[in-house]
Design brief:
Chain B: GO terms for molecular function: FAD binding; oxidoreductase activity. The complex is a heterodimer of chains A (355) and B (478). Chain A is α+β, with helices and mostly antiparallel strands and 355 residues long. Helices cover 29% and strands 26% of the residues of chain A. In chain B, the strands form 4 sheets. A 7-stranded antiparallel beta sheet of chain B has the order 15-12-14-13-17-18-16, sandwiched between helices. In chain B, strands 5-6-10-8-9 form a 5-stranded antiparallel beta sheet. Classes of the chains: A alpha+beta (355), B alpha+beta (478).
């Protein structure tokens, strides 16, 4: 079923007699079929107030084009995973929010959930709930906006999302270092610990460690030069690297490659050890967020959670036989279960493999 | 201000309850003498006062858990307290409550510059978090005005902001993990020194929940390397509308200052009389601060000068050195003190879409005349977070009520133009009864369901946030 307005969405949920697999653009390997949210369109865009409101089913591309026309952007650099997972389809903004997807700029501008300032969603009883709003600072009542972001549809189905925006940077520069992934983490930490406002810090196979700065042209030139000097002990040099950041965001080195796919969000300083274990087990990595995000392509069936333990953080299996989400400590799991029971008392939003 | 009547059964058992608390805690950690509990009768919303039944000042997470277990078993409401600087009454006790103060839990537990994190006990003051790391060139970004005194626990409870959050975000954007003790006395670790939640984002839910979901005893905070420098400019305008248009143009131009502060004429006049900062004689002024190296600051300020010139400013004053920077900030930082000098004032905290700024200022002016009370405006213009200050005389009969009525009208106006009741101070008791202006019943129901999960007996800070008649059935269940 495809719904194009909030009232129809609420009706569909109220009328559901069996679990509903909800999807936006179907590009993140979640639900296979069922209820498609096609509530689409930008309902408000105020460039002078850095705010945008759109239907959850609005294609990400449509939003990015509207913002680009005004020299603005979503701060968190949303990444498309369709190529990585081999899924055709158009990413929707609601899907981005439901999975809380953030790209390389997360180290500077925060995650998707940090830019999300308001939501409307339909809970498991078919009730429309709104939280947050369209202003940048808002502590009125509980922050259900954060709770819904990244909830993979477990508590409700998004109908509308509101974001705060940032001006797009007129200039950027990339500094590269020819380092192995494990050794790259210290160099990335040095960059992120500098006052030069780094907006990306990752590692790509065949390229090495990369660090990005963005902003006004003269400022970018200055900071890139200072970073190159700071990172000279790691062999840093400036490169023409603008295209590399989309490679990193979309994990292009793994496109079209077989094997299980894992995504680990961990304490960055643990990355060298985790990377060593992954490569020893025949896996390959891509690093983002200064090593805090490890993408791993593993031989089929490898249990990366056991292999990498102990680590602070969590591992998601995007392709493979392992459960998609990291098991939670008992106390946290009990709270999460109880929240789901309150928002979805009939268990409508419980497709296999969800949270 | 209505508060629920104290639970007579709890009051009758005071001696037994205090004895149980004393048995569980060190001797100096339980206070129940009336002359001593009076120190905890209010927070910074001092118009409302009520001494608690007892105060506990634990030193460890285990002691916090022990207190909560006892209070849960006895059905005693618990009011968590950081440093008691809430402007919304978030830490105001009830007569049958135990105030759980975290002031003694103030240690730094771990600093890791490679991972850009610090772990602290939550009673530590905001500014002393930066104090622990600034020697190495780092800082903790959220900077509420009360940062010298306010505690991280309270910052997390209220999701505090500050002048520099235009660039760095508010508490929730800088919080990575917490140790939370639930009302049942269970210790739960949520998040940690890594990005993003695994399952549901309970961390984002707890931040800003006003001490109603659990007591945060420790926190992992994101820390940042200090920028090379910072410098403000002051721009004076002949009308509020023009200053508002200039803010929108600066934002649209792609410059992102770390702060854009706005003051209107009543506020400028009051601060000039108070601290003689040497501000220009004008209708409105902006203070815009940029960060970076000298060259980067010059580049940004150059752009801002060009934009401001298009709005025919009365004055454009650029700080050439630290002393001039200090003088530009002096009036803004003295604004609340200056108002205090003139008499009693009530500080509002609504947020509006930046585009509505001129209209809202005009309508606040009209309301001010209608109610016969002066209103001065000082606020974070970049993000639309307003702080109208209503001046009144608490000793004049009926004037406090008139002031509160005017405040309510202004907050309703904020909601009507698409904004909210509170941008960074929290709801507490102060805005509690206005929540239905902003939220439909089902929106409030969804929020109360969350409290049901964390605190089924509604014992944690129960009479806050939700209008009493809306939460009555749940609170009655305890």
């Amino acid at each position: 079923m495809r719904v194009t307005c909030e009232a129809d969405l609420a009706e569909a949920i109220r009328g559901a007699r069996a679990p509903l697999a909800v999807r936006g653009g179907g590009t993140r390997g979640g639900a296979a079929a069922g209820l498609e949210v096609a509530i689409s369109g930008i309902s408000l865009y105020e460039p002078g107030a850095l705010t945008l409101i759109a239907g959850a089913g609005t294609p990400l591309a449509e939003i990015e084009a509207a913002l680009a026309a005004e020299g603005q952007r979503l701060p968190f650099e949303p990444a498309r995973w369709g190529g990585l997972l081999g899924l055709a389809g158009e990413s929707t903004i609601g899907g981005v929010v439901a999975a809380n997807v953030s790209g390389p700029r997360r180290v500077q501008a925060g995650a998707c959930r940090d830019s999300l300032i308001g939501v409307r969603f339909v809970d498991g009883t078919g009730t429309v709930v709104k939280n947050g709003g369209r202003v940048m600072k808002n502590v009125t009542g509980y922050d259900l906006v954060k709770l819904i972001a990244g909830s993979h549809g477990a508590l409700g189905v998004l109908s509308e999302v509101a974001f705060k925006l940032l001006p797009a940077a007129p200039a950027q520069a990339t500094v590269a270092m020819d380092l192995a992934p494990g050794a790259a983490v210290a160099a990335l930490a040095a960059a992120l610990g500098s006052p030069f406002d780094v907006s990306g810090a990752g590692w790509l196979p065949g390229v090495g460690a990369i660090v990005r700065v963005e902003g006004l042209a003269r400022s970018v030139a200055y900071r890139a030069e200072r970073l190159t000097a700071l990172l000279a002990p790691f062999g840093a040099r400036q490169i023409e690297g603008a295209g590399l950041w989309a490679d990193l965001a979309e994990v292009r080195p793994f496109h079209g490659r077989a094997g299980d796919l894992w995504r680990l969000s961990i304490r960055p300083s643990q990355a060298p050890e985790v990377v060593a274990r992954i490569t020893a087990a025949g896996g390959e990595v891509v690093l983002d967020w200064g090593g805090g995000l490890v993408w791993a392509r593993m031989p089929e069936g490898a249990d990366l959670r056991a292999l990498a333990a102990p680590y602070s953080g969590h591992a998601s299996c995007l392709r493979g036989a392992a459960p998609r989400f990291e098991p939670e400590p008992a106390a946290v799991a009990a709270l999460s279960r109880a929240l789901r029971a309150r928002f979805d008392p009939r268990g409508i939003f419980t497709p296999e493999g969800a949270l | 201000m209505d508060m629920p009547s104290p639970n007579a059964r709890v009051l009758a058992r005071k001696a037994e309850i205090v004895a149980r608390l004393r048995a569980a805690l060190p001797a100096d950690a339980v206070i129940d003498a009336p002359e001593a509990t009076r120190a905890y009768e209010c927070d910074a919303l001092s118009a409302y006062r009520c001494a608690p039944m007892a105060v506990v000042l634990p030193r460890t997470t285990a002691q916090v858990a022990a207190v909560l277990k006892i209070c849960a078993a006895e059905g005693v409401p618990v009011v968590p307290r950081g440093a008691g600087t809430s402007l919304a009454g978030g830490a105001m006790p009830s007569a049958d409550s135990v105030v759980l103060g975290l002031a003694r839990m103030n240690r730094v537990l771990e600093v890791d510059y490679a991972d850009r994190v610090i772990r602290v006990e939550a009673g530590r003051t905001n500014l002393s978090v930066t104090g622990a790391i600034e020697g190495e060139g780092w800082f903790y970004a959220p900077d509420p005005s009360s940062q010298l005194a306010c505690a991280i626990a309270g910052n997390i409870a209220m999701n505090s902001g500050g002048a520099h959050c235009l660039k760095y975000g508010v508490t929730t954007n800088n919080l990575l993990g917490v140790t939370l003790v639930t009302m049942a006395g269970e210790v739960v670790e949520i998040g940690g020194p890594y990005a993003d939640a695994g399952g549901l984002d309970l961390l984002g839910l707890i931040c800003g929940s006003e001490g109603q979901l659990g007591v945060v005893t420790e926190a992992w905070l994101r820390i940042l390397p200090k920028p090379e420098g910072a410098r403000p400019v002051l721009i004076g305008f002949s009308a509020n509308e023009i200053a508002g248009a200039c803010v929108a143009d600066i934002i649209r131009a792609g410059v992102l200052p770390v702060a854009i502060e706005f003051m209107d004429r009543p506020c400028i006049v009051a601060t000039e009389a108070f601290c003689h900062a040497g501000y220009p004689d004008c209708e409105a002024l902006l203070i815009v601060e940029c960060e970076g190296s000298e060259a980067e600051i010059a580049e940004q300020l150059g752009l801002i000068r060009e934009i401001a010139a298009r709005h025919d400013p009365v004055e454009f004053r650029e700080a050439r050195d630290a002393e001039e920077a200090r003088r530009i900030w002096l009036g803004r930082k003295s604004a609340f003190g200056a108002m205090g000098q003139m008499g009693d004032y009530m500080c509002l905290d609504g947020t509006i879409p930046v585009s509505s700024l001129p209209e809202v200022l005009r309508r606040i002016g009209a309301l001010s005349r209608e109610y016969g009370l002066e209103v001065a405006n000082v606020f974070h213009a970049g993000d639309g977070n307003m702080h109208p200050l209503i001046l009144y005389n608490a000793n004049a009969p009926g004037e406090q009520e008139r002031c509160e009525a005017l405040g309510a009208e202004i907050l309703k106006l904020c909601v009507a133009v698409g904004g909210c009741l509170t941008g960074e101070h929290g709801v507490g008791i102060e805005k509690r009864d206005l929540m239905e202006v902003q939220f439909a019943p089902e929106d409030l129901e969804a929020q109360m369901r969350v409290k049901d999960v964390f605190d089924p007996g509604w014992l944690l800070n129960p009479a806050k946030v939700f209008p009493l008649h809306v939460s009555a059935a749940r609170r009655g269940a305890m």
